[in-house]
Amino acid sequence: MKATFLTDSNAPLIIKEVEMPIPGEDHVLVKLAYSSLNHRDVWIQKGQYAGPKAGLILGSDGSGKVIQAGRNVDSRWVGKTVIINPSHNWGDNPAAFGDQFKILGNPDPGTFAEYIAVDVQYIHEKPEHLTDIEAAALPLAGITTYRALFTRARLKSGEKILITGIGAGTALLALQYAIAAGAQVYVTSSSEDKIERAKRLGATGGFNYKEQDWFIKAKQATGGFDVVLDSASGSGFGNLIETAKAGGRIVFFGGTDGPIGNIVPNKVYWRNLSILGTTMGTLEEFREMLAFTSAHEIKPIIDKVYPSLAEAQMAFDYMHEGKQFGKIVLTNQ
User: Fold this and answer.
1) How far apart are CA 141 and CA 256, in angstroms?
2) Band of residue 234 on the pLDDT scale cut at 50, 70, 90
3) 3-state secondary structure of 30
4) Residues 168 and 39 sit within 8 Å (Cβ to Cβ)
5) In 3D, which of 324, 331, 62, 288 has the Cα closest to residue 172?
6) Both 198 and 132 in a single domain?
7) What whole-number distance in Å separates Cα of residue 251 and Cα of residue 307?
């Protein structure tokens, strides 16, 4: 089968013929129709992510049709269109994953291939309201933002939330989930166009973080936020603390801007703020995410669809530019 392959850190992705995976007794073989990119894939290629740096089939998100079932798997799965949960081996503690946790695509072969074998516990029927392309764009962003918003931040109807970096797939799903939950949503971006597009999706307002005093304006305009959701970290994280209400919750799940700096401790403890990290989610949270997505007929925003796996490097370069508004999808052929 064809697969998009990473031969070495910082090396261009190549198309490589590899052996067809053989499903184990508890596995299914899925013929993938579409897969989608995450920033995680770009960081792996650049050697800036934990785990193997080379010899990988990347990709955490995908949708396709089950064409073969292992001996212990219900044969009725064959022929069904499914999406794949990329959060594997979480463990028994719902508060945090265990030592065996891993995310599909590193170290296990990922979704940037024609076929994938996966344990049946990690597949789910595609929600009826989603196209195959939208289904491929949902899993990682869906589970990440669902856990961040509802398990960690415990977002409630009527609360105000600030979502940073609107345009990313995770931020856009968080926007849709928060609105569906009855929250009042504000966003940040360096692009006025992205802020306006977020407003058309239901955001109440937005702030350009390139403006030096944006966080002061945000606090003055809103009275502060009950929840702040961030995926960048970096030196600007301290500004997010300034925007939070007393007793507020700041949840983050990424570090694209590097280590967190310039935090003034008394601004956290004196105002009883909670700063919460989160990564992916449990099997139960994935099921809850799918149910919530279906109940509210939420659809991931798609920015661009590339016509084949051979376009993967172009897709990676486009993601690295940071101009997208929504998910970037590959056609798995």
Assistant:
1) 15
2) confident
3) strand
4) yes
5) 324
6) no
7) 36
Residue 294 belongs to some domain of the structure: no
Question: Which is it for strands 27-36 and 102-103: parallel, antiparallel or unpaired?
Answer: unpaired
Whole-model pTM? 0.94
As given in the structure block, the two tokens for residue 127 are 């929600």
Examine residue 306 and state whether it is found in any structural domain, yes or no.
Answer: yes
CA–CA gap between residue 218 and residue 195 (Å, rounded): 14
Name the amino acid, one letter, at 13: L
Which positions ≥6 away from 152 have C-beta within 8 Å? Answer: 249, 251, 276, 278
- Across 126-235, where does the E strand assignment appear? 160-163, 184-189, 205-208, 225-230
Lowest average pLDDT, out of 114-128, 182-196, 232-246, goes to: 232-246
Which residues span the domain enclosing 305? 2-138+300-331
Domain identity same for 101 and 173: no
Half-sphere exposure of 70 (CA within 13 A, CB side): 16
Query: Could you report the per-residue pLDDT of 254-268, keeping only the tens digit for each?
Result: 877 777 887 888 888
Sign of CA dihedral 285, 72, 127, 300: positive
pLDDT in tens, 243-254: 999 999 999 998
Q: What is the mean pLDDT of the chain?
A: 94
CA gap 106, 121 in Å, rounded: 19
